[in-house]
Design a protein that fits this description.
InterPro entries: DUF6221. It is built from four helices and three strands, in the order αβββααα. The chain is mainly alpha-helical. A three-stranded antiparallel beta sheet has the order 1-2-3, with helices on one face. Strand 2 and strand 3 form a beta hairpin. The longest helix is centred in the first third of the chain and has 22 residues.
């Protein structure tokens, strides 16, 4: 079961890393929020509620990639556990609605 969960998590992290890299193709730097506007480096997108603008900016590709690397380190520490430990199950929990989510996770 642990191997199945590890492979599932690796696939999700790979997908998220690929998406984050594609969102910052020019390496322009950090996203930021200013009131109703999200600054995507060279492009300002207005019209957001300020809270939503901050939420979008929080998902800056560079930050997402750092978070993915942290999750990969946790995954590596627990990948050989005989049964998915609580840490692996916690890492998997956001993906519970994914069609490939392991039934016994």
């Amino acid at each position: 079961m642990t191997e199945e969960l590890v492979k599932f998590l690796e696939a999700r992290l790979d997908e998220e890393a690929d998406l984050a890299r594609r969102c910052d193709g020019d390496g322009c730097g950090e996203w930021s929020a200013h009131g109703h506007t999200v600054d995507f480096c060279q492009v300002d997108l207005p019209g957001f509620h300020p809270t939503i603008a901050r939420h979008v900016a929080l998902h800056d590709p560079a930050r997402v990639l750092r978070e993915i690397e942290a999750k990969r380190r946790i995954l590596a520490r627990h990948a050989r556990d005989p049964w998915p430990c609580h840490d692996l199950r916690d890492l998997a929990s956001p993906y519970a609605d994914h069609p490939d989510f392991p039934a016994r996770a």
